[in-house]
């Protein structure tokens, strides 16, 4: 009797590297460099309206210590440097943003982390006054792992007609290389 033996190899998922307690911002920037997909919920408020928006996922590029997003590109037309956050978010501040944007489920996506946001090297892209529609505020990355992170956006947008407060909570995952931009 002949038996055929087959060797079956199961590809186990590669475990993501935690970025907790990594105080070197350059090491964190190197770990997260690449192309990402941002899925975000935005809360928009002005003096008369308050609304939530769930835009389609967008590609994000982190390269050479800079972040490039469609929002930043529409406001200033170039990537923005990432720097250490001056006032990092603590767990209460993150929870407040997640609640304000009806995005509490995002906390579950990073719940296997060995630390809270205080243990992360948080990186911020700060927008200082822009021309046209004036924008002021920041987009902050909370890189829990080298394959997923939270994003908090807090901007004030001013035009001659109105002032708009934009608060966003998002989730970044590596961009699938099979998906074109």
UniProtKB/TrEMBL annotation:
Signal peptide location: 1-16
Highest taxon listed in the record's lineage: Bacteria
Which keywords does this Swiss-Prot/TrEMBL entry list? Signal
Q: What name does UniProt use for this protein?
A: DUF306 domain-containing protein
């Amino acid at each position: 009797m002949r038996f055929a033996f087959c060797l079956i190899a199961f590809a186990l998922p590669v475990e993501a590297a935690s970025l907790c307690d990594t105080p070197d911002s350059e090491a964190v920037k190197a770990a997260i460099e690449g192309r990402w997909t941002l899925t975000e919920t935005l809360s928009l408020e002005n003096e008369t309206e308050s609304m939530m928006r769930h835009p389609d996922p967008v590609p994000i590029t982190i390269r050479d210590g800079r972040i490039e997003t469609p929002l930043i590109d529409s406001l200033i037309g170039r990537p923005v440097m990432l720097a250490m956050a001056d006032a990092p978010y603590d767990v209460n501040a993150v929870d407040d943003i997640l609640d304000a944007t009806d995005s509490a489920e995002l906390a579950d996506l990073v719940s296997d982390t060995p630390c809270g946001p205080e243990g992360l090297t948080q990186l911020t892209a700060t927008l200082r006054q822009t021309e046209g529609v004036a924008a002021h505020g920041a987009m902050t990355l909370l890189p829990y792992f080298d394959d997923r992170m939270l994003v908090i956006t807090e901007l004030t947008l001013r035009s001659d007609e109105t002032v708009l407060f934009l608060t966003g909570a998002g989730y970044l995952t590596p961009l699938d290389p099979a998906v074109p931009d």
